[in-house]
Write a structure and sequence with these properties.
The structure holds two protein chains of two kinds. By secondary structure, chain A is of the alpha+beta class. Chain A contains eight helices and 20 strands. Classes of the chains: A alpha+beta, B mainly alpha. Chain B: Belongs to the binding-protein-dependent transport system permease family.
Chain lengths: ~375, ~290
C-alpha cells in the first residue's frame, strides 16, 4: 500500500491550468524526485502537498488519511525551502526548536530533540549562532535540522541545493542521500537538475507543462524514456536523436549514403517498412572501438567526420557528423582523434531506443 | 570611472571638494542659526535682550527663564508653566505612536502575506486617506468625537492621530513586508504558527529598521501637530504646541522673549531626543542572513 498518494490533482491559477491531473503514489521510505524544466508545475505540486497552495480538484492522501483540506501544520510534513527560510531573529537552536515549541513540547524535551538533530547533522557548534553568521552550507544543514527534528511523516525539499556552489552541492547531495538511507524517511524532492534526480531518487517523476511524462526508477527513466522529452531532458550530454527510416531488416540512418543498423532489442513489435523513426542513443553507447562493450550483441561500426572534441579529463566527448546529422560520442580520454578526420565509431544498439517522431512516444 | 579620472585632474577635484564642503558648512550654519538664537536668548536676561544684539553670546547665562517657562509662566489666565501641557503631549503622543505603529504593522502584514480579494483597493483607499487635508475633516471629526464622548480629552486626540497616522504607517510596513520573503511565512505555517504568532514571533522582531522609521515619523508629526490640538482640545487638556502658542500670544505687559524661547526649546526637545536615540538603529539591517540573496 502506498504511503503518499496524489489522485488526479489539478490546479488552476487564473485561466491557466498549472497541474493537469497528476497521479502519483509513493511507498513508505521512498525518495520521490519531481523533475522538469522551469514552469512545469513541480513547485506548485510540492506546495499543494505541503498545503500552502490549495488544489482546484483532486486528492492528496498521506498514510491513508486524506489531507487535501488540512492546514499545513496539521499534515505532519516538514519542508526545506530553496532559500532555507531560517528565521533571522532566532538562533539556530531556536530555529530548530520553533516547530516543537508551537506544538507545545516542553522545554527539556525540546532541548533533547535539538541536541540529537544537531549531532546527526554535525552542527552542535553552531547552535548559538544566528542565520546571518552561517555559510550557505551551514544554513542548508540548519534548514534540514528544522525539518528533521519533528520526525514528520513526509519531508518536502524544494530545490534545496540550487543556492550552493558546485562543490558543496555534491557534498550536501551525498549527505541527503545518506540521511535518507539512515532514517528511512519518506521524501518528496523537487529539482530541475537531472543529476540530482538520478543520484537521489528511488522514483522519478518527470513533469512537463503540468503533465506527468513518465514515472519510474532512475534506471527506467534513463534507459527506457517514455518519450522524446524525457529522453532529451534526462542525461548530460543529451541523448543523440538520429532521424531514420524503417527498412527491411533494420533502420536506415544518415540519409542516402548512410548505413542500415539492426532494429534494437528494445523494439519488440514490428516496424512498418518506410516508417520514419527517431533512434535515440546515449553518448556513452557511441564510443571508440577499443571501449565498445564486448558483451553487446548488436554493434554497428560507423565512420564519421569529427567536428568537435571536448575533453573532460575522465572522458572525451567527440562530435561526429554524417550527411548533416551530428551525434556525440563518449570516448576514452586519450582517444586518437583529430578534428576534421574520419573516425570509426562503435554504436552499441543494445542500448538504443526508437521513437515515433509524430507522437514523440517510444516504440516498444 | 576611468573616464572621469582622466578628464578631471587631482587638483581640480580637490578644489571642487573644498567648494562643496564650504557650501555645506554655510548651509548648515544657516539652518542652525535659529536654534542658536533660541538657545542664547533663553539664557539671557530681558535687559540684555533689549540691548538688541541677537547673535551675541549671553554675558551672564542664567536658567531662570527655563525654570519660569517650565513652572511659572502664564498660559492664558493660569500661571503654572508649561509642564502640565508637556505631560499632556507625552500622554497623547506615546499611545498614539504605539497604536498607529502596531496597527500599521498589522495592516502591512495582512496586505502582503494574507492577501484577500480587493486588497489593492483597500490599500489604495488607505493611501488616499493620507492625502486628504486635515482641515477638510475637522468638523466631521469634531462631531464624531462629540458623539463618542471623547471631545476635549487626550483619548480623543490619540484617536484622531491614530486614524490619521494609519495610512502612512500602513504604507511604510506594507512596502517593507513586500520585500519580506514569503517562504519565511510558509515555513512558520508548516511549523505550526498561526496568524498572530507569525506576526509576533517572526515579522515584528525582524521589522526593527521600519519600526524606527515609523516611530520617528509618527512621533515628530504628532508631537508637532497644532491644528488637531487646537481644534479638539482646550484649556488644561491642550497639548504642548497649543500651550506654547498661548504662552507666546497671551503674555500681558512686558514680552518675555527669554521665557518664550525656553518654552520653545522644551517643545522641541522630545523630537530631537527621539531622533538622536533611535536614529542610530536606522542603519542596522536585521534582515541580513534570512535568505541567501
Amino acid at each position: 500500500m502506498s504511503f503518499l498518494e496524489i489522485k488526479n490533482l489539478r490546479k488552476k491559477i487564473g485561466s491557466v491550468e498549472i497541474l493537469k491531473g497528476i497521479d502519483i503514489s509513493l511507498e513508505k521510505g521512498g525518495f520521490l524526485v519531481l523533475v522538469g524544466p522551469s514552469g512545469c508545475g513541480k513547485s506548485t505540486l510540492l506546495n499543494a502537498i505541503a498545503g500552502l497552495l490549495p488544489p482546484s480538484s483532486g486528492d492528496i492522501v498521506i498514510d491513508g488519511q486524506v489531507v487535501t483540506d488540512l492546514h499545513p501544520s496539521k499534515r505532519d510534513i516538514a519542508m526545506v525551502f530553496q532559500s532555507y527560510a531560517l528565521y533571522p531573529n532566532m538562533t539556530v537552536e531556536e530555529n530548530i526548536a520553533f516547530a516543537l515549541e508551537m506544538r507545545g513540547v516542553d522545554k527539556a524535551a525540546r532541548a533533547t530533540a535539538v541536541a540529537q538533530v544537531a549531532k546527526t547533522l554535525q552542527i552542535e557548534h553552531l547552535l548559538k549562532r544566528r542565520p546571518s553568521q552561517l555559510s550557505g552550507g551551514q544554513r542548508q544543514r540548519v534548514a534540514m535540522g528544522r525539518a528533521l527534528v519533528r520526525q514528520p511523516r513526509v519531508f518536502l525539499f524544494d530545490e534545496p541545493l540550487s543556492n550552493l556552489d558546485a562543490k558543496l552541492r555534491v557534498e550536501v547531495r551525498a549527505e541527503i542521500k545518506s540521511l535518507h538511507q539512515n532514517t528511512n524517511a519518506t521524501i518528496v524532492y523537487v529539482t530541475h537538475d537531472q543529476i540530482e534526480a538520478m543520484t537521489l531518487a528511488t522514483k522519478i517523476v518527470v513533469l512537463k507543462e503540468g503533465v506527468v511524462q513518465q514515472v519510474g526508477t532512475p534506471a527506467e527513466i534513463y534507459n527506457r524514456p517514455a518519450n522524446l522529452f524525457v529522453a532529451d531532458f534526462m542525461g548530460s550530454p543529451a541523448m543523440n536523436m538520429l532521424k531514420g527510416r524503417a527498412v527491411v531488416g533494420g533502420i536506415a540512418l544518415f540519409g542516402k549514403d548512410g548505413v542500415i543498423v539492426p532494429i534494437p532489442p528494445s523494439v519488440t513489435g514490428s516496424l512498418t517498412e518506410g516508417k520514419e523513426v527517431i533512434l535515440g542513443l546515449r553518448p556513452e553507447a557511441i564510443t571508440d572501438e577499443s571501449l565498445a562493450d564486448q558483451t553487446a550483441r548488436s554493434v554497428a561500426r560507423i565512420e564519421a567526420a569529427v567536428t568537435m572534441i571536448e575533453p573532460t579529463g575522465s572522458d572525451t566527448f567527440v562530435t561526429g557528423k554524417i550527411d548533416g546529422a551530428s551525434f556525440t560520442a563518449r570516448t576514452r580520454a586519450d582517444v586518437p582523434v583529430e578534428l576534421g578526420q574520419n573516425f570509426r565509431f562503435a554504436f552499441n544498439l543494445d542500448k538504443a531506443v526508437v521513437f515515433d517522431p509524430e507522437s514523440g512516444r517510444r516504440l516498444d | 570611472m576611468s573616464g572621469a579620472t582622466e578628464t578631471v585632474s587631482a587638483g581640480s577635484a580637490r578644489t571642487a571638494r573644498y567648494f562643496i564642503y564650504a557650501a555645506l558648512i554655510v548651509l548648515a550654519l544657516v539652518y542652525l542659526l535659529p536654534l542658536y538664537v533660541m538657545l542664547t536668548t533663553s539664557l539671557k536676561s530681558l535687559d540684555e535682550i533689549r540691548g538688541g544684539d541677537m547673535l551675541a553670546l549671553p554675558k551672564d547665562p542664567s536658567v531662570a527663564a527655563w525654570v519660569k517657562a517650565w513652572g511659572e509662566a502664564c498660559i492664558g489666565v493660569s500661571c503654572v508653566g508649561i509642564k502640565g501641557y508637556f505631560w499632556n503631549s507625552l500622554k497623547m503622543v506615546v499611545p498614539a505612536v504605539a497604536i498607529s505603529t502596531l496597527l500599521g504593522a498589522l495592516n502591512g502584514y495582512v496586505l502582503t502575506k494574507w492577501r484577500f480579494p480587493g486588497h489593492k483597493i483597500v490599500f489604495g483607499m488607505m493611501l488616499f486617506a493620507c492625502f486628504i487635508p486635515f482641515q477638510a475633516v475637522l468638523i466631521p471629526m469634531a462631531r464624531l468625537l462629540g458623539a463618542a464622548g471623547l471631545s476635549n480629552s487626550t483619548a480623543g486626540l490619540v484617536f484622531v492621530h491614530v486614524v490619521y497616522g494609519l495610512g502612512f504607517t500602513t504604507l511604510f510596513f506594507r512596502n517593507y513586508y513586500e520585500a519580506f520573503p514569503d517562504e519565511l511565512v510558509k515555513a512558520a505555517m508548516i511549523d505550526g504558527a498561526g496568524f498572530f504568532r507569525i506576526f509576533w514571533r517572526i515579522m515584528l522582531p525582524t521589522s526593527g529598521p521600519i519600526i524606527v522609521v515609523t516611530v520617528i515619523y509618527q512621533f515628530t508629526n504628532i508631537w508637532n501637530d497644532f491644528l488637531f490640538g487646537v481644534s479638539f482640545s482646550s484649556g488644561e487638556a491642550s497639548p504642548m504646541t497649543v500651550a506654547l502658542n498661548n504662552l507666546v500670544s497671551s503674555s500681558t505687559g512686558v514680552k518675555e522673549y527669554n521665557v518664550d524661547m525656553a518654552a520653545a526649546v522644551f517643545a522641541a526637545l522630545p523630537t530631537l531626543f527621539v531622533y538622536v536615540v533611535a536614529g542610530r538603529y536606522f542603519v542596522r539591517g536585521l534582515m541580513a542572513g534570512a535568505v541567501k540573496g
